[in-house]
Amino acid sequence: MNIIEEEINKPTVFKNESKLSADFIPNELPHRKKELQRMAQVFKILLQSPGSASRNVIMTGPVGSGKTAVVKRFTNMLKESSLKRLINLKTVHVNCRKNRTPFMILKTIVRYFDPAIPKRGFSTEELLNILSEYLEDTGTFLLLTLDEFEYLIDENHNLLYGLIRLMDDKLNPVQRLYLILITKDISFREVLDESTLSTLQQNFIRLAKYNSEQLRDILNQRVLLAFYDGVVLEDSISLIADIAAESGDARYALELLWNAGKIADASNVLQIVPEFVRDAKSKTIPVIRIDLIEELSLHQKLLLLAITRILKHDEKAFVTTSELESHYQLICEEFDVEPLKHTKNWQNIKVLKEFGIITSRVSGPGYRGKTTLIGLPDAPAEELGGEIERQILRRIEEHARKIRT
After folding, report:
1. What are the angstrom distances between the C-alpha of 380 and each of 12, 13, 194, 337, 376?
2. Residue of 309, 329, 284 lying closest to 374 (CA atoms)
3. How far is CA 189 from CA 90, 146, 154, 156, in A?
4. How many other C-beta atoms can be found within 10 angstroms of the C-beta atom of residue 184?
5. What are phi and psi of 30, to 5 degrees?
6. Domains of the chain, with CATH numbers?
7. DSSP assignment, residue 189?
8. Closest CA to 239 of 227, 257, 251, 255
9. Residue 91 pairs with which residues in a beta bridge?
């Protein structure tokens, strides 16, 4: 028998597993109404008095806190409201991790309006002018979202100034560009000039990580959409919520739920019991860690690599901050990267902890004085270190290739 046909015809707990995908945005976003209302307050001027003033928002929060989902749901609602009022509004969402240079980002935006534009042959300044002229000539308003914006700042932050000042070369210009930046943290502000920074500081919206009760609400919503009635036990939902609450990551919770469903199907059991959740956790964590590492900055990865090397080499459970900084300096030298100062490193350590990638606690007996002890909550140090090193090398090679071209 064809094994694919056999698998397709097997009984399943899933009604529609696509509803568990990170790309699916439900009509209602549990526990994010306040943030949606705040965005509505900021951008309502676009509907009440189009072009009278530009508005920009920075959306921050840890991985899995719903930043992209909130923005996509909001932009969809804004488009619906603009259609009712016959306002020519377009929305463009660009991921800066996939499009890491100003040229690639601008090319993506301009080709949204004109797919026939050549892939090469324009500078970033020319693309900005093309965008400005198109918006002006067609009477279009653009709500532009730059997702994972920290990846662009690592390379070049001049694009942001160009976008904010897009219409400023005209007398009393109609403001046609509205901007949303999505980022894990706001450390990128350190490299911005005062003029750009003052324009952006008006509207920060920070999403807190989800707690166990909130994750339970999110899971219950998706269970109704993704599974047949009665197949997911309440205890299983509670267990997933408690596991994912440590990082507050809704994507992780949904991944656990999906994997538990796949384990139920493979076991020919039409019910998702807590044991399947525990099995899913053992299978899911390494994948989640790799996904999180992809989103880290270069120096956050270098710090994490230092942690994994110390823990693996010394067979320790924890590393002190002084040991970490010393090894970080050596790794920066190894990869020919200029190391960051202590304050910035400490901020990056806090980000790694916030993402749930590392743990930290104050030292107790056995240590001289008080120091912070850093460890890894789950993924093996050797496996994690190998993945980080591959990503660092790939990023350095990409950067070198850009310089050559």
Report:
1. 33, 32, 43, 26, 8
2. 309
3. 27, 15, 11, 13
4. 22
5. -55, 135
6. 11-22+210-286 (1.10.8.60), 33-206 (3.40.50.300), 296-404 (1.10.10.10)
7. G
8. 257
9. 143
User: Which alpha helices (H) appear in 146-201, and where do they start and end?
Assistant: 150-155, 158-164, 194-200
Per-residue confidence (pLDDT) for residue 5, from 0 to 100: 81
Cα of first residue to Cα of last residue in the chain, in angstroms, is: 52
pLDDT of residue 365: 62
Residue 20, C-beta contacts closer than 8 angstroms, at least 6 positions apart: 222, 226, 254, 255, 257, 258, 261
pLDDT attached to residue 155: 47
DSSP character for 227? B
DSSP H helices, 246-380, are 250-266, 274-294, 298-314, 321-334, 342-354
pLDDT of residue 156: 52
Contact 155, 190 (CB under 8 A): no
> Residue with structure tokens 């090319």?
107
Residue 173 confidence (pLDDT): 83
Taking alpha carbons only, the member of 355, 117, 176 closest to residue 248 is 355
Place of tokens 């109704």: 224
Instruction: Give the mean pLDDT per block of 10 residues along the chain (405 residues).
Output: 79 94 92 96 95 90 92 97 96 88 89 81 87 93 92 65 77 87 76 68 85 96 96 94 90 93 94 92 61 81 91 77 92 91 88 78 66 75 80 80 66
Measured between alpha carbons, how far is residue 318 from residues 86, 189, 284, 293, 383 in Å? 60, 32, 23, 20, 17
The residues, ordered by sequence, that sit 6+ positions from 97 with a Cβ below 8 Å of its Cβ are 147, 148, 151, 294, 295
Q: What is the residue whose two structure tokens read 């980022």?
A: 183
Could you give the CA distance from residue 34 to residue 63 in angstroms, rounded to a whole number? 19
Q: Copy the structure tokens of residue 346.
A: 């400490």
* pLDDT in the model for residue 139: 94
Taking CA atoms, 387 is separated from 106, 283, 290, 291, 347, in Å, by 31, 17, 7, 11, 23
Helix (H) or strand (E) holding 59: strand 56-60
- What is d(CA 66, CA 352) in angstroms, rounded to the nearest whole number? 18
